[in-house]
Amino acid sequence: MLFLTRARWFSLLTSALVAASCHRQGDGIAPQAAQDPDWLTLTVPSEFATDDVAYALAGDLDQTLLVATKTTVFTTSDKGQTWQKSRNFNGPLSCLLQRHDTIFAFILNRGSNAPGEREAQNAQYFTRDFGKTWVATTTLPNYQRYQNWVQPTSRVQAAGVTYFLQGTSAPIPNSSSQQLLATNLYRVGTSGTTTVRLPARHYLYNLHLDSQHRLYVAASGLAFDPLTQQGIDPTLPKQGVVYISRQPLPH
Fold first, then answer.
1. What average pLDDT score do residues 122-135 get?
2. Is 162 a member of any domain?
3. Torsion angle, CA of 145/148/149/150, rounded to 10 degrees?
4. Is residue 66 part of a domain?
């Protein structure tokens, strides 16, 4: 039988506890995402008792990621383990657009000439420190151009590949109205247009590509049953969701 000295036993116990602590801490990704081979999943803080939504995205998961919800921009610098409130904009932002070291916050939505495509207008605020401080664009020279700035929110392009969102709907029985269903995500490349699979079906609001060409998808907390196309437990509280591809330019 092998006997351990008290010092050796204590050393092994300490190492085991440290290893267990590191495992528990993980990478800050939601547990259900660890089972998906293609996507990481983050859930963002919610300030509402009902369904919340991730509306817009900017930044990088490995550095600082900014996510806009129904009223507030949150940031995380540890892959979603903790979130900091950046600013309450008292309403949803239609787009967060990064240009070099500056991120612009767009406050208006507008239609597009392309069917089903959404666009953002009026970059009213900007940050140069990843959301620690925000400044009005009216302080910039020729600030009027930022008010008229238009940016697509449902389409991104890189390295000859385009991703775009397209909503779906179905007729409501005995009505002339349509019921909005989950949004589809498509990829356009050299092999044509294909549907990109996500871990679940949601309303999708915004796309973002980081410097490594990983795709970020901003989604509603509400998910849809893939068979019935109906919302799953629509009355229960839910947090907005962000999906991040594990590989660049996912198929």
1. 97
2. yes
3. -160
4. yes
